[in-house]
Amino acid sequence: MTQFLHVDGVDPVEIETVAYTVEDGVAWVSLNRPDKRNCMSPRLNRQMMRVLDELEFREDVGVLVLTGEGTAWTAGMDLKEYFRETEAQGLKGTRGAQRESYGWWRRLRWYQKPTIAMVNGWCFGGGYGPLFACDLAFAAEEAQFGLSEINWGILPGGGAAKVATELTNFRNAMYHSLMGENVDGRKAAEWGFVNEALPLDRLKDRVTEVAKVLLTKNPVALKATKDAIRRVREMTYDNAEDFLVRAQEAANSFDNEGRKEGIKQFIDDKSYKPGLGAYDKTKQKA
After folding, report:
1. Strand 63-68 to strand 26-31: parallel, antiparallel, or no bridges (unpaired)?
2. Looking at residues 228-237, what average pLDDT do you find?
3. For the domain 12-215, what is the CATH code?
4. What UniProt keywords are attached to this protein's entry (predicted)?
5. pLDDT digit string (tens) for 8-42?
């Protein structure tokens, strides 16, 4: 059942900009402004941070999926509410709106649980921020991806240009940014913006399948791995090697029983093979 996170003193319109439901260990979080193609407004950005806070350490949540209500994932920033109305307040208004949006994208990048972007429709401009923030991404073949900023006279800011160069090669990123042309989900997968593209009617089933696999993994190892992959991309090999040794030591000390059980089931019980699946967490000591 779809839920809204009610907060005393917060406008109901703001509360309803983000919807969510928790089913079988998966939190399905939706940007909920379908009439605006889920454009991100200051109100939505504030509410999204509250929802992320609410779900991050819930014991019944092991994976978070971010999607959009209606026919869009998000068409980017709301040009009226995010740009015109905040710019009318001067630099203070602009900086405040930036902190709210960049803040939840940053929070999502380092989230405690694995995150999946389920791009069911339009993904434009500012939408590249949460797209990159999610650990995995799957899109409908019919989805449209675009950096349209050049078409209305600005550069792809808010991290969008950085995301493009992180996820695809230089020539693709340059063409995508300069031309202002959309690409569909298939091309987005080819370029590396998403892991896979599927027909829309198969998208949720595939994301559910992936989420169920993630739920079988050791949660401490998942968090350590998420962080490691993001961190080492910016390091030299030697620095990455040292970082990973320390990260492994920290993970071992925090969840030593999980590691011991995984090794026991492989070496002693011979009940699974790490290359073919995860160990049975239900046999792990509390």
Report:
1. parallel
2. 93
3. 3.90.226.10
4. Lyase
5. 999 999 999 999 999 999 999 999 999 999 999 99
